[in-house]
Amino acid sequence: MTKYQRILLKLSGESLQGSCGYGLSTDVLRSYAAQIAAAVRSGVQVGIVIGGGNIFRGLQGAGRGFDRVRGDQMGMLATVINSLALQSALEQQGVRARVLTSIRMEPIGEYYSKARALECLEAGEVVIIGGGTSNPYFSTDSASALRGIEIEADVLLKGTRVDGVYTADPEKDPAAVRFDEITFGEVYRLNLKVMDMTAFTLCRENGLEIVVFDMDTPGNLERVLAGERIGTRVKME
């Protein structure tokens, strides 16, 4: 039995590089695909949004002199590359997966619409939505919040290399303490960095709870779906 019937899984692009430092790690892709395949076989409908930071990040481009809009567009294309890579990894696991893109680029992917995404989800396919929101100045966190709301997901699962939300960055502060649960209001009050503020506010205003967990530990996705208390649940007040 699973706690959720339909999820939006946000994956970090940077996590896909593994120990390579850049690009795509086949080991990470294989691990993620195996976890997602297990979720699908348990009956969960899975939508996915992936970042592009392992290839190109718009803000990095702006810092190097690129026009911000063009830099963000390059980042959107990076998310599509990651989406195609994950699609291939899922198909190797015997799972049907479809890439929908927020920018028209057939035949690379179908153009995204809520109706098409729901049709594919209900047919048992994993739906990977690439291209961010298709607009500059919006992160893939914002895209994941938007798509999670649109596809009427039960929860937004943010799979990262960190095992939850902490009082400070645990990679920099060894005294940082992890929260098991926290409300949206407390995150605002404590100024915690769960997602960017646009994404976070979208979730709060539309009643979409968030679970932040360590996706790099095999089996964790299945544990979250089963309702185990791992990671941090960001809940309504």
Describe this structure in words.
There is one protein chain. The chain has 237 residues and is α/β, with parallel strands linked by helices. The chain has a single domain (6-235), classed as Acetylglutamate kinase-like (Carbamate kinase, 3-Layer(aba) Sandwich). 38% of the residues lie in helices and 19% in strands. The chain has eight helices and eleven strands. The chain has helices spanning 26-41, 58-63, 68-92, 114-122, 140-150, 184-190, 197-205, 220-225; strands at 6-11, 45-50, 97-101, 110-111, 126-130, 155-160, 165-166, 178-179, 181-183, 210-214, 232-235. A nine-stranded mixed β-sheet has the order 4-3-5-2-1-6-10-11-9, sandwiched between helices. The protein has a two-stranded antiparallel sheet with strand order 7-8. Helix 1 crosses helix 3 (68-92) and helix 5 (140-150) packs parallel to helix 7. The chain is globular. The protein starts with 5 loop residues before the first strand and ends with a strand. The model has no long low-confidence stretch (mean pLDDT 94).
What would you say the CATH architecture is? 3-Layer(aba) Sandwich
Identify the CATH homologous superfamily. Answer: Acetylglutamate kinase-like
Strand order of the largest sheet: 4-3-5-2-1-6-10-11-9
Report the total helices: 8
For the record, what CATH class applies?
A: Alpha Beta
Helical content stands at 25-40%
Structure summary:
With 237 residues, the protein is an alpha/beta fold. It contains eight helices and eleven strands.
Features:
single chain; Carbamate kinase; 9-stranded mixed sheet; alpha/beta; 8 helices; two-stranded antiparallel ribbon
